[in-house]
Fold these 2 entries.
Entry 1:
Amino acid sequence: MLRQIEKVGIQYIQPDGTLTPEGEVAWKPIERPLKIEFYKWMRKIRLFDQRSIILQRQGRIGTYAPLQGQEAAQVGSTLSLNREDWIFPSYREHGVAMIAGMPLKQILLYWMGRVEGCRPPEGVKLFPPSVPIATQIPHAAGAAWASKLKGEPSVAVAYFGDGATSEGDFHEGLNFAGVFRLPVIFFCQNNQYAISVPFSRQTATETVAEKAAAYAIRGVRVDGNDVLAVYTVMKEAVKRARTGEGATLIEAVTYRHGAHTTADDAGRYREQEEAREWVELRDPLKRYRRLLEAEGLWSEAEERDWEACCKQEIEEAVCEAESAKAPPASHLFAHVFADLPPSLVRQRESLLRQEEGR
Amino acid sequence: MAQFTLIQAINDAMRLALERDPGVVILGEDVGKNGGVFRATEGLWERFGDDRVIDTPLAEAGIVGTAIGMAVNGLRPIVEIQFLGFAYPGFEQIVSHAARLRTRTQGMFPAAMVIRAPYGGGIRAPELHSDSTEALFVHTPGLKVVVPSTPYDAKGLLLAAISDPDPVLFLEPMKLYRAVREEVPEEAYEVPIGQARVVREGEDVTLLAWGAMVPVAIAAAEEWTQKGVSCEVIDVRSLYPLDEETLVASVKKTGRAVIVHEAPRTAGVGAELAALLQEQAFLWLEAPIARVTGYDVPVPMFALEDAFRPDAYRVSEAVRQVIAF
């Protein structure tokens, strides 16, 4: 039995995997390969996430931010974008990054404390994870503004959490987007907690979505564990942005199954009962797999094959990342300036001398 | 006497302050139920309640700004900024208001408050969590800036900061949070702001350091002591105001100084110390003053942090340099 913890917003796939009447309408026009792709990405992202936690426990990567529970929000939203669209993620968007075209190896390098993991492949407009909360929100507004000024059709998306909505940068970014009618989507994964602080301590409003009204942009609340609803809502927001109708604030209501990071213990501040309900009854993968299987689009055998395929890909990426040549100490000075000023050249030389002397 | 780590000493100081003065409140992100991400406020929320140990929304400008309002209206706020590298949204409130309210109101509404922040590298923290930006605050008139490196000093300095009539930035070297335990008195006591601590006495070279660089300086000093060079190590401890007397007297005695800090070199606090020493001990100097610092590059992600942070080897080399001059 589901308790009504909160109103989750627009929902097309119910937790038991059945479609609502509106869901039927949204489901029909989606091509079969995309229906399957939704699931494949969610499964791969979850497997990567679980593997990463183990790697951290084994000391093979540093502190890691788990995303389990948020796969539908990330997959549904990112698959609505085109390659020329800009993405400004926070530090929990490994799923977004993968779909955008960031190799797994790079994502792992980032969590190994290597700056190389910040750099996307050529042509991928994915910013490095934004660690200071909400600071990526004005960036997305600015990138969207540039597209608009240049007359290009690309849009920009900022990904952030519920905690970010308390920072000034959130309000400033949304305000600019409203004033200049910018082609930007503000995608909030409201996973209920900013580390330990519950959403009710973040704001007195019931939702994030209603904050859009203060800036005269559109606000939508969607069930963030329903990949179809997220995809549909995001598709609409992207279309509006591309056609000059301005920005949308999307609040995807979801839940972080695990801790804030591997350095955090969620048991200190969350009711076990609440977490269990989200994990067992509202899980984004479970519900979508039920739907796919009911529609005859997925089977146990395909599940096994796909899982094996993902695991192999992940292991290969782990091997690649772990066998990547360690950066020399002098790499501290790489890309600090286009041309290294003389004082920095001297500092680099002194570092090299020190390294030799050790 | 109790055996405390540095972070336990900080926790103990806040517990005492909350007990002694009903005006003391703690504000910050995750400081309540969770007890702080490093557990600095562990147990305080349970004991003193939600009105005194306050989980705030995630908004540093809001936290510092409201703390200023509380301070001018008679409370004694202790703000926790989760990491110094995330203080920037609150920076304007600190430099434009907290630091100069006493001046602007001509003594009418000073903002007596403490801003605590973990800082520095060495713990393999995620990106942007390891900055050392003490110079930004030392350069801000109206602020006091202190950095303990031992559990004893942490408790005494924090209690001094809480009772200080001016805003105090209290920087906590994360690397040392659980590095050592030492005897800490159970009662309240203060370590005066503005006093350096002579960690070990020596004759030939003075090593000046603070925070997590103090143990690094001690390690280098021990190495040279075995080679017959006697190093004095001073924990500067109070970056503003500086204990000029102790620092200058030491350099007049040894004639040589090596300044160690984790922050980048250019315009770091070490530059101020070097200027001060050459102004006041010029005729006593036997060698140019050496600085061992982070490089002038963005603080790296942790794969390279050991290359960035000064270590005993680099400090030792600097000692060699000033001795050989």
Entry 2:
Amino acid sequence: MSELPSPPPDLGYTHALNRALHAEMAADDDVFLLGEDVRVGASGVTSGLMPKFGPERVLDTPLSEQGFTSFGTGAAMAGKRPVIEFQISSLIYLVFEQIVNQAHKFSLMTGGQIQVPVTYLVSGSGSRFGWAGQHSDNPYSLLAHAGIKTVVPGRPADAYGLLRSAIRDPDPVAMFAPSSLLGSTDVPDSGEEEIVPLGEANVLREGGDLTIVAVGQHVGTALEVAESLSDRVDLEVVDPRTVYPFDWDCLRKSVNKTGRLVVIDDSNRMCGLGAEIIATAAEEFDLLAPPKRVCRPDGTVIPYALALDKELVPGPEQLTKSISAALNL
Amino acid sequence: MTREHQLALYRSMKLIREFEERCLEMAIAGEIVGGMHPYIGQEAVAVGVCSNLTERDFITSTHRGHGHVLAKGAESRRLLAELLGTLEGFNKGRGGSMHAADMRLGILGANGIVGAGGAIAAGAAWTAKARGNSEVVVSFFGDGAMSQGVLLEAFNLAAIWSLPVLFVCENNMYATSLRCDSGLAGNAARRAEGFGMVARTVDGMDVESVAGVAGELIERCRDGAGPAFLECLTYRFFGHHSVLEQLGVEFRDPDEVATWRKRDPIVSLGERLGDDAVAEIDAAVKNEIDEAVEFAKNAASPEPKDALMYLYSGTAAVRPGVVL
Ligand SMILES: Cc1ncc(C[n+]2csc(CCOP(=O)(O)OP(=O)(O)O)c2C)c(N)n1
């Protein structure tokens, strides 16, 4: 894949997504990409696809999210495998009807007569620090709630492997790519070509004292915190990777071993992903202490001023505090 | 138009009418549980348009979709079986009246959300075009749908990409109770022209006019001339939904309804065909519907434990909502 012109290889996560798109488009002629400014690759994620696959497979759409989202549904019903890139995570609110009420429901409503294999690629989800109220949301819990297969990869290798699985899946799948990882050079793209199945969590660090479930960019946060506390406690870090369907078996094993649970997740608190994980743990797992969650406040709207933005987005300090509370440190 | 063609149009319209009259009774009796949106009066539109389509062409339909689905060639007995929520229905009892569709006939869903089909139609048309095929897509919707933004977005996509879609607006003058002149600014066909589409308006109570003009527009689509728009002026003889019929809610002037009923598309084509031909078709259609009722009433119901079957294509395990 060395002939790819851009994005620069040090943008690990972006590069991994870009490689996955190249690979899936090369593997299957029915895969095509549509979205705003995808031909020039404005986000970096779609770079180089237009010169390689041509205008028939890389479609710049007008600014009509509702139209092009259901356009994807129709194209899929007629036999294609569209990947739709959304420029802003909050645009998902505009197309809730088209994803949740249309694409998702056809398989059941038609009694299995049809499937809708569309991938919704929401790159740049979450706070971008300084992008304020309408560009900083992380609406994956909403799609998970509605039953849309939803992935939030925390590392470049998973971004690569899960995007390929998402495109191959016969159902609609949403992938949320955290904005703080997209621009990051911290974890380079390993160049791995492994396909990661949907619905499988990953235990990134083994430990016996407490389980941290970390989603998206917080996988990195959790690993750092676990390392920084390693002289005092032995922390296990679980990355669900797919938030719906969730790998409950993996988490059950982990929590039944450690007996303690902290979830760090960049959703709003009320009805967010963390709420579901903790509820299930309380109902079904062997807990030695009340579980904790680190998340955004209820109904968060991210303010512009950087200090306020940072205040509302979960981070390592809150995670450390929650771990200490759960362990009575 | 040949007599044979006229007979086929008559038969198709009569089938829809007979089917729907029977369904309306069953809906009012509570046998069709969610009720139905009757198409009675509008048959000439579905039949005229679909008479120009092959099984490989696609349609998107609406909440008032029985007519479109039957005109596209779906079996009446399986449609009725669907309305009764049985496994013999196209959708195995998971769709019901508002979603009943046979995908093998290219019916990309009857849709309960007003205006939702247009963009789906555009996507299917793009796929057909990208594959180099000559299929066209017809998207049916009402005058009420003309106020939905997503439909206008679909017009734009179809026009800029020159897609083979015929947008068919069934202007029955009402969106539930809202009269078209209070709900639609300007004029439907002129709006479509604003997107650069060829747009025509026809008498939707005359099946031969609908078939003729739709035929011209569909040929243009097939030839690669891009999307077109057809407005059919029509009327529904019954209320918006069987529930309103049950409640006796009527918001239209009875004289207006009576005037339109005099323009019944089935009666007027029947008059041109002559009594004998009509009597023969009527009897055959009645027979078919009797058999459909028998078939549907005897069909098995799905198992409650399978309520979420087909939601996902694979094995994605859905956890129960009530943990015992
Ligand atoms: C987007 C949306 N809004 C409201 C409704 C409720 N509703 C169902 S049918 C209907 C009227 C539709 O009118 P029109 O498009 O003219 O079709 P008609 O019923 O006359 O065939 C309404 C308001 C809906 N299903 N979808």
